[in-house]
Amino acid sequence: MKKNQSVLFLLLSFPLFLYPANENTSIGARANGMGNVSVAVADFWSLYNNQAIMPFYGKMAAGIYYDNRYLLKETSTAVLGGTFPLKNGSDVFGFSLSHYGGGNFGEMKAGFAYSKSFASVFAFGLQFDYLLDYFKDAVYGKRSGFTFETGLYGQITKNFSLGFHVYNPARLKMVSYNGITEYIPTILRLGLSVRFKEKCVAGLEVEKNLDAKMQVHTGVEYAVMKYLVLRGGVRFPDFSFSLGFGTQWKGLSVDFSSSYHSYLGYSPQLALVYAIR
């Protein structure tokens, strides 16, 4: 009983800091370790964060991710995904399935993505999403909806990249079983990344949910040795910070991170990705 009361208190007191699947937050322990910098950083989880980047990752791969936000099952996120580049390398398909929540409430998102690159310099991405929210209480029931997201990515130079992504640009709605409608959040993100001497990557990103305050993310990644990468980042204006590390052996990548919020506590994240080729 006390645990349920604690969760309810968090939901009512800190709505801006709880990010369900419909909010489309950054996915991946690398992104979270860098303060949620992701829209201009190429890696496997671009299939969720900015689909336009998928050709620049360029591998057939599968991955799983778990975010134990604030160490509560009710606010945790689990994601499964895969990327499938065609032989030409410039066309890539991807899928992702995510679940947020636990206990009496949950949100699911299934996405199918496609990206096309041009001259290994510029790329466009598009993803179609199916959303489902459910309550175990029969009074609230379920609600579902369809939306889409799109992104752009440009590798201006070998070491400098720009990315843009918009989620639900058409301001589509969720519809419940009793006909009640609710807007799906529309979220715009613009960011850049800079690589220094192959060992260090720094990123800056601005995120604007049309129904919330603007967020600024900044982070850095540094390869201290061949098989170990360290990361750190900060988010404003909620002033949460994060640390993480990653390692890779042959086709397997393992990344771990943890963010900390002064009111809500720790949120550890773990991601495993296996590149088939």
Summarize it.
The protein has four helices and 16 strands. It has helices at 2-13, 29-33, 46-49, 54-57, and strands at residues 61-67, 77-85, 91-102, 105-118, 122-135, 142-157, 160-167, 173-176, 181-183, 187-196, 200-209, 215-225, 228-236, 240-249, 252-261, 265-275.
Write the layout of secondary structure elements.
Elements: H1 2-13, H2 29-33, H3 46-49, H4 54-57, E1 61-67, E2 77-85, E3 91-102, E4 105-118, E5 122-135, E6 142-157, E7 160-167, E8 173-176, E9 181-183, E10 187-196, E11 200-209, E12 215-225, E13 228-236, E14 240-249, E15 252-261, E16 265-275
Antiparallel strand pairs: 1-2, 1-16, 2-3, 3-4, 4-5, 5-6, 6-7, 6-8, 7-10, 8-9, 10-11, 11-12, 12-13, 13-14, 14-15, 15-16
Overview of this structure, please?
This protein is mainly beta and 277 residues long. The chain contains four helices and 16 strands. It has one domain (19-275): Beta Barrel (Porin). Strands 1-2-3-4-5-6-7-10-11-12-13-14-15-16 form a 14-stranded antiparallel barrel.
What descriptors fit this protein?
277 residues, mainly beta, Porin, 14-stranded antiparallel beta barrel, disordered N terminus
SSE order, one letter for each helix or strand: HHHHEEEEEEEEEEEEEEEE
Structural class by sheet pairing and helices: mainly beta
| Number of individual domains | 1
CATH superfamily: Outer membrane protein transport protein (OMPP1/FadL/TodX)
Radius of gyration: 18 Å
Unreliable residue stretches: 1-21
- Sketch the major β-sheet: 14 strands, antiparallel, barrel
**Helix share, percent:** under 10%
| Averaged pLDDT | 89
Proportion in β-strands = over 45%
CATH class: Mainly Beta
Q: Briefly note the CATH topology name.
A: Porin
